Amino acid sequence: MSLFLLLSLRQNEAVAALEYRDFLRATGLRPERLEQRVLGSPGAAVGPLDRYAGVFVGGSSLNMTESDPGAWQRHVVRELTALIDGPVPVFFTCFGTGLIARAIGGSLGHDHAERAGQTRVEITPDGRRDPIFGGLPASFPALTGHTECVLSLPARAAVLASGPSCPVQALRVGGHTWATQFHPEMDPPAMARRMDFYRHHGYFDEEEYDSIVDSLRAVDTGHAHRVLGCFVDYCLRRREHSPDYTGKVCMPS
């Protein structure tokens, strides 16, 4: 039985538990196949990954544009940067796009920050050739909320998805490191629950809370969830074939 790992960058146990539940639902994995490690302190390490077919990295309240990051953030960045060119496929969400961009020489800013709510994801030509994104619709809705964004990337990174409000919605580095700026693990109830915990972090104005939650009800996150399902499929095929497996395009189920 192939196992997967979720790394949660959370200091709040309740948020980490919600995130684990969101990833279980979106990936379709059963609890016995998805383990969780919470990197909630400078002493919490990623640890050995030999047992896992693939690794998910959840979002975080941390910001890569922070001018004076604390010990916890510096530790998280060191631990996660080591995964980028590692032997195990990794899928980062939200915070991870900025971490990867900074690690490989890209630049970050706030020009295309998105308030909590719905966004539009549009697959690029590179995305059409990608084993995870290639079988998805040309455009689909997803849920998001971030205060910083990727402004530029070096040639070694491929932009797999863009959008009208954020030009880098998904990227890949090398053969098996992916990241999305949007949250593929969230559905509308999950985002409402997450918003309850982050009311004063700059993701939305307090007076907009009710209207945002109401607007989420009509958002279909099925294709966004399928991104994670395709990552699972890719990792399983790679483990079955060889570490050099590059993958075929994942088609929607």
Automatic annotation (TrEMBL):
This is Glutamine amidotransferase. SUPFAM superfamilies: Class I glutamine amidotransferase-like (SSF52317). Keywords: Glutamine amidotransferase. Transmembrane segments: none annotated. Residues 80-189 form the Glutamine amidotransferase domain. It comes from the Bacteria. It comes from Corynebacterium mastitidis.
